[in-house]
């Protein structure tokens, strides 16, 4: 496993403002191939190894946190490692497409942290420069007692525009986004998670309730599909069969993960297909069709997520599931197949959507 120590050694064991090594480090950690588990290990290593505000592990931690913004769907901007008079000295910026902005203050520890007025000053300056009120501050903390910092924020004029979060909780939010993506699509998942990270208007608590319910409903639907599979087959429901026109209209709104799943299920010679083979084929389609926008490794969890998303859309229509699944003792795995009545329609749709890769992979 690659460690931050190894990366820093290759870069001369230091990170400084305006040097080539810092740019190379940032490009490296931004690579999409790094899974969340790897980022988590790097952040943990930085917290364990950091000895002070100016050591390379502290600065690596800062850049790693800023880089997470890309995974949350923000445009990111790295800040400075060391403050300089006359410069904008924030640690980083996350910006939404609509201009809403989060200014980051990243600390491996709560000690020492001075007045929250420093981050507040960054908010005020950028608000004047950008001519917008939707600029917020976020402390991302590695370790330590955060209560004194919370009390500072609550007692300041920035209590409505400043928040804090421990880096481990930030990673949990990233994991939540990754769970939601196969179910509701990347764009919708990004929107919900960004709403969690940006301060929510607190007078109308209905805003908070609705956001929580949306996420809870999505997660429970995905969990429901997993439970159904573990019970060997989905419950017998008296749902109506699809007409060809209805099914094609339904397929039209499939998310990228759902498209990968359907594409995988119709491109095999032998049925049913194991979950291991499904994920392999989903990854092959994603790799060969970059226009689909999936540039990270697809895991088995994506099957349940994609099926949950398909179910969420078909249930209000009163239509039957087009996918069958059960536990195979012979394969020691869950197996899947498109129902015979719909396989040809789905196969033709996959070809028309240019998701057919069977001949490409042999």
Quick gist of this model?
Helix content is 52%, strand content 12%.
- SSE order: HHHHEEEHEHEHHHHHEHHEEHH
User: What's the number of extended β-strand segments?
Assistant: 8
Report the CATH topology name of the largest domain: Restriction Endonuclease
CATH architecture of the largest domain: 3-Layer(aba) Sandwich
Kindly name the structural category.
alpha/beta
Portion of residues in helices? 40-55%
Overall tally of structural domains: 2
Query: Which ranges are low-confidence, i.e. pLDDT below 50, for 5 or more consecutive residues?
Result: 231-235
Average pLDDT over all residues: 86
What order do the strands of the largest sheet run in, or round the barrel if closed?
1-2-3-4-5
Look at the structure and name the CATH superfamily of the largest domain: Type II restriction endonuclease, HindIII
Let me know the largest β-sheet.
5 strands, mixed
Shape summary: elongated
Report how far apart the termini are.
32 Å
> If you compute it from the alpha carbons, what radius of gyration comes out, rounded to the nearest whole angstrom?
24 Å
């Amino acid at each position: 496993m690659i460690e931050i120590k190894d990366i820093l050694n290759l870069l001369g064991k230091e990170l400084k403002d305006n040097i080539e090594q810092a740019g190379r480090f940032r490009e490296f950690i931004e690579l999409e191939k790094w899974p969340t588990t790897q980022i988590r290990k790097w952040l943990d290593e930085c917290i364990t190894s950091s000895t002070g505000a100016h050591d390379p592990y502290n600065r690596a931690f800062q850049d790693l946190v800023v880089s997470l913004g890309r995974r949350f769907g923000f445009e990111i901007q790295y800040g400075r490692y060391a403050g300089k008079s006359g410069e904008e000295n924030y640690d980083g910026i996350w910006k939404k497409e609509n201009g809403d902005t989060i200014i980051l203050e990243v600390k491996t520890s709560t000690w020492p942290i001075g007045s929250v007025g420093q981050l507040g000053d960054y908010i005020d300056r950028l608000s004047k420069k950008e001519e917008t009120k939707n600029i917020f501050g976020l402390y991302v903390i590695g370790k330590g007692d955060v209560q004194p910092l919370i009390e500072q924020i609550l007692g300041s004029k920035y209590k409505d525009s400043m928040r804090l979060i421990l880096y481990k909780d930030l990673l949990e939010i990233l994991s939540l986004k990754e769970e939601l993506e196969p179910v509701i699509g990347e764009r919708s998942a990004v929107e919900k998670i960004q709403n969690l990270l940006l301060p929510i208007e607190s007078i109308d608590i209905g805003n908070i309730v609705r956001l929580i319910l949306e996420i809870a409903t999505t997660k429970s639907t995905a969990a429901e599909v997993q439970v159904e599979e573990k019970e060997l087959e989905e419950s017998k429901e008296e749902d109506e069969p699809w007409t060809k026109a209805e099914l094609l209209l339904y397929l039209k709104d499939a998310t990228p993960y759902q498209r990968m799943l359907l594409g995988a299920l119709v491109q095999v010679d032998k049925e049913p297909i194991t979950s291991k083979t499904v994920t392999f084929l989903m990854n092959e389609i994603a790799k060969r069709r970059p226009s689909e926008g999936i540039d990270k490794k697809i895991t088995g969890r994506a099957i349940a997520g994609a099926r949950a998303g398909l179910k969420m859309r078909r249930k209000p229509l009163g239509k039957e599931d087009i996918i069958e699944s059960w536990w195979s003792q012979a394969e020691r795995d869950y197996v899947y197949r498109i129902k015979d009545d719909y396989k040809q329609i789905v196969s033709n749709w996959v070809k028309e959507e240019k998701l057919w890769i069977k001949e490409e992979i042999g």
